[in-house]
Design a protein that fits this description.
Largest sheet: 3 strands, antiparallel
Order of helices and strands: HHEEHHHHHHHE
Structural class: mainly alpha
Number of strands: 3
Strand content: under 5%
Strand order of the largest sheet: 2-1-3
Helix content: 55-70%
Radius of gyration: 18 Å
Length: 215
């Protein structure tokens, strides 16, 4: 359980970096070495994000309700490349994953889903207390070395990540309840919820009319 909780920390950061991360043949290295490299990517994403109008802030993907900047796209591509994808495939996956993440978040907000600030702060404080007890905390320490922050400093950068996760999580939970009602009526298996959710996310993304802007 404690190891899973530490994995959740890394998963939240991965979602922020990649949108929806998929697996590939990964490069060699220990879990600690990979965590270190991932921390370096997270540093680029969070601490080196460009100000408006600066190089990297230019829009590379434009949709009805969101944009993706060159910096966001570059960070995501780097993450996929770290997981063994070639440049062309990494770029394709980065656009799709970031677009899906942003489209679903926008749709959840449009439907009125919000996140309670105190709930988020409480969850961050909980993770601060739980993380050091994880059996694989060494990986998290390597991640922190990569990002160049102490643990408390890192958590202070993660409010927006937890906020996004909370909003989308509430939206997803309500979709799960709808799905359960539908499958009870039809006698279908509830294990197919992921396919059901992916189908909804796909429709949401289709309505965004995405345009790629070359640099």
């Amino acid at each position: 359980m404690r190891k899973v909780l530490a994995a959740l920390i890394m998963c939240l950061a991965a979602c922020a970096l990649l949108g929806v991360m998929t697996s590939a043949e990964t490069d060699a290295g220990s879990p600690e070495e990979r965590a270190l490299r991932f921390g370096q990517l997270e540093r680029m994403r969070v601490l080196e994000a460009p100000a408006d109008g600066a190089p990297g802030a230019e829009v590379r993907v434009k949709a009805e309700s969101f944009v993706i900047t060159a910096h966001e796209l570059d960070c995501s591509i780097a993450g996929y490349e770290m997981n063994g994808y070639g440049r062309a495939e990494a770029e394709k996956l980065a656009v799709k994953s970031l677009s899906t993440q942003k489209a679903v978040l926008s749709e959840a907000k449009r439907r009125g889903y919000t996140a309670d600030r105190q709930v988020i702060l409480d969850r961050i404080e909980e993770q601060k207390k739980i993380a050091p007890t994880a059996s694989n905390y060494g990986e998290f320490e390597s991640f922190l070395r990569g990002i160049g922050l102490e643990a408390d400093q890192y958590w202070d950068t993660q409010y927006a990540t937890f906020e996004r996760a909370e909003i989308v999580g509430r939206f997803r939970q309500d979709l799960l309840e709808v799905y359960k009602e539908q499958t009870r009526a039809k006698g279908a298996a509830s294990e197919d919820f992921e396919a059901y959710y992916d189908g909804i996310a796909k429709k949401i993304l289709e309505n965004e009319h995405i345009t790629l802007i070359k640099g």
